[in-house]
Request: fold
Amino acid sequence: MTMTEHEAALGVLPCVRRDVAPAKPKPRHRRGRLRRLVPVLGVALGLGLLAVPLALDLWEGLRAREAVSTMTDQAEAMDPKVRKELLAQARAYNHVLAGERTSIPTSRILPYGRQLMGEGQGVVSVIKIPSVGIDLPVRLGTSEEVLSSGAGHLEGSSLPVGGASTHVVLMGHSGLLGSRMFDDIRRLRRGDSFYLWTLGKRMRYEVVQTRVVLPEEVKHLEIKRGSDLCTLVTCTPYGINDHRLLVTGRRVCDDGGEGRSSVNGALSVPPYRMLILATGATLAAVGWLSHRKARGRRTASPPRHMSASGASPRAPGRPSGRRLQRS
Reply:
């Protein structure tokens, strides 16, 4: 279609033909929706990373408390004669380890795997350290199955019934994703107390020494004549585990209390767990800030049908002012 001379002189564009369909608006690009979705995903992922370690710790803590509670109930319900016999067997076993004479013939002493087992229960004792929140069941042996659910008693060390010339050795994991286990024995200092509870008998130990040794340095776990000792063992440092941390306590008179603590400061947290928590917190914070920023932009921008000055924009191709009729 060509413009008439009159239209050209007035500088007026010709009217659009009625039979020509108006151009369809372009669909909104999907990237806009993706940008709005990213902050939400960041917050969700961050909160998930924060929640997983806490949930696993809670679950393992509940399992440990259930095992401790079961062992306590069984010990309290045990026939006193059976309890006395089990304690006598354990003491005789310890005398043999220390090279001492025993009132029970060696041939009648129960083998290691049957000591302190009562009616076949797996838990033989409880290790409790109130100052760092440790309360774990103790089972015989140091297999992965045992250590994944609590502390393990090292075979070849004294059974946890106390007495002169005994040295109990308990082992526990550190740095597990879902459980703290022996993580916090690193915070124990000289003079702090921990407790063993075996067959209704509570024994209090006071920390006298902490040391880091190589795995083959077992001389520190030997029985000392006349001493009543207990050593807690875990791997160190976190993630490398090529050394062993030994926390040794000496038996003291139990005053009936829960013991004092010289431990101050925040709980120790393994580096890998710190990384997970920091990553989760960062993702959640970035996602939340991005979401707020996006909402702020949408609030500040004018509606699509309004111009920046608040007036409706002119239709494209239409001159301002009065509409001129075609001549």
Summary: Confidence is low (pLDDT under 50) at residues 257-270, 319-327.
